[in-house]
Sequence to fold (215 residues):
Amino acid sequence: MAATPFAAGRDADVYALDDARVLRRYRDGTDVAVEARFMSHLHAAGFPVPRVHRADGADLVMQRVAGPTMLQALVAGTIEVAPAAAVLAGLHRRLHALAPLPDAQHGDRILHLDLHPDNVILDPGGPVLLDWRNVRHGPPGLDVAMTALILAQAAVDPEQPMAAAADEMQRAYRHALRDHAVPLVTEALAIRRANPTQTPTELALLDAAAALLTT
Ligand SMILES: Nc1ncnc2c1ncn2[C@@H]1O[C@H](COP(=O)(O)OP(=O)(O)OP(=O)(O)O)[C@@H](O)[C@H]1O
Ligand SMILES: [Mg+2]
Fold:
């Protein structure tokens, strides 16, 4: 296509259409209808997600958010670990306080299930949460457990240059949320183990990551 790809995730290529809009396209053709529906609901509720302009098959045209990802900012040293952990915890608190869609089961909330520093953009107006591929309804503790597990996975990875920061971050994040993560770590582990984008090296770290959260 004519537009310039400016980012490539594990699942999607992202093209800048102009200064205000990006196109995110799933390489495997996954339909974006469900995530676009949640994102539109969240945007209307005042939660910081990119505004959806168009959803069509594997293509999502959305607002282009300015600023580095939280991971880039951590690597560059322009944000410290403690405030970054507080941003993640704050996004989860805000998300879980919102009303779910009408088809939710009683007591369930909207879960992101992939909230980590590479899916948050630090826009000058505040943090914006991207990458709603795994969005669904469920118990908030599962979302918290998933983030703790993802951070712990980076913390126990010998190849990860940010391992020490990830360990400090998972502790600060869990502390901020009063350790709601622990009860649902087993469920989060099963979901992450079944995630097809996990490499064999990452899968091999999962048990040690879970152990870090429960000891
Ligand atoms: N609305 C947006 N505005 C600005 N940048 C964006 C936007 N959406 C995505 N990006 C950029 O593209 C990258 C990949 O996007 P995203 O995380 O949605 O794709 P992905 O393939 O699901 O990624 P992964 O599975 O690797 O986390 C983001 O980290 C971000 O740098
Ligand atoms: Mg992503």
About this structure: The chain has a mean pLDDT of 95. Residues 7, 9-12, 14, 22, 24, 50, 62-65, 69, 118-119, 121, 130-131, 133, 197 surround adenosine-5'-triphosphate (ligand 1) (CB under 6 Å). Helices lie at 33-44, 70-76, 81-96, 140-155, 163-176, 185-193, 200-214.
